From TrEMBL:
GO molecular function terms noted in the UniProt entry: carbohydrate derivative binding; DNA binding; DNA-binding transcription factor activity
Residue ranges of domain HTH rpiR-type in the record: 3-79
InterPro entries referenced in this protein's UniProt entry, alphabetically: Homeodomain-like_sf, HTH_RpiR, RpiR-like, SIS_dom_sf, WH-like_DNA-bd_sf
Name of the protein in question: MurR/RpiR family transcriptional regulator
GO BP, one annotated term: carbohydrate derivative metabolic process
Pfam (any one): HTH_6
Transmembrane region(s): none
């Protein structure tokens, strides 16, 4: 399918105007990176309107960029984390200092977007849900599993009854059995999305569990399966998907929770510190 798309991009019909050539050349050269693009980002890179990109994609035979991405996904394997460009180019860029500088700037830009997220009503709703829940169950998969476990561990220092659920029992009964009211599922999933994530969110809501979903801009079903959706910038290269943005979001959420809970956190940390001393897990 990718070969067919490339052949059409190179046809005279799809290169009639200056904007046609700009878009065709961009898609042709960056086909592997399209999962990390939006029509808006392509328009910004080419200094043309988003509407122009949309019209071009329809002429190309697709109902927008998401439709093109879906066709490409069906036509090839798409690992969750993958190198997205020429290693020779990366090696030269790192010698010139361009690569690391670009990565740092991307993180700075993403942090600005995270701050904007923290001012939205969904953010405060998520914080309040995590504080007031009778139990908080944290779930994540594959590459992001580790940082979700980190979040669950840190959250357990602020409040009791926080667990990371791995689903190895095959039922997620600890979340879904309905034995305790007021539960919250904090679900973390990003591109490439885990097959279990959406069914778990749907079953949780069916069981009366409030679902807080932390995901990225590539998630097409965020609002459909969650009570509260926190959507952050997705990874746009240039190497592979990193965890810095999501980790920053989680740290800010924890800080917000600590401030709002105040002395209750101090009291809990003292209890946990005493228990750590009893069991000797840390050096004195």
């Amino acid at each position: 399918m990718a070969k067919e798309i490339l052949a059409r991009l190179q046809s005279a019909e799809m290169r009639k105007s200056k904007s046609d050539k700009l878009i065709a050349n961009y898609i042709e050269r960056n086909l592997a990176e399209l999962p990390f693009e939006t029509a808006k980002s392509i328009a910004a890179r080419l200094d043309i309107s988003q509407m122009t990109v949309g019209r071009y994609l329809r002429r190309l035979g697709f109902d927008g960029l998401d439709d093109l991405k879906a066709v490409l996904r069906r036509g090839r394997s798409n690992p969750a984390w993958q190198v997205k460009g020429s290693m020779d180019r990366f090696q030269q860029d790192i010698k010139d200092g361009k690569l690391l500088a670009g990565l740092v700037q991307q993180q700075i830009d993403n942090l600005g977007m995270i701050y904007e997220l923290s001012t939205k009503v969904e953010w405060q709703q998520a914080i309040e849900a995590l504080i007031s829940a009778s139990e908080v169950h944290v779930a994540a998969y594959q590459n992001v599993r580790g940082i979700a476990q980190y979040f669950a561990s840190q959250l357990s220092y602020t409040r009791p009854r926080v667990t990371f659920v791995d689903g190895l029992n095959g039922t997620y009964a600890e979340v879904l059995d309905g034995s305790v009211e007021g539960r919250v599922l904090f679900l973390h999933d990003v591109r490439r999305f885990a097959s279990k994530a959406r069914p778990l969110a749907e079953e949780a809501r069916r069981a009366g569990v409030k679902v807080v979903l932390l995901t990225d801009e590539f998630c097409p079903w965020a609002d459909e399966v969650s009570d509260i959706a926190l959507v952050v910038p997705g990874s746009h290269g240039p190497l592979w998907d990193g965890a810095a943005t999501m980790t920053a979001v989680m740290d800010l959420m924890l800080s917000n929770i600590i401030v709002l809970m105040g002395e209750r956190v101090d009291e809990r940390v003292q209890v946990l510190t005493r228990l750590q001393d009893v069991f000797g897990d840390f050096e004195s």
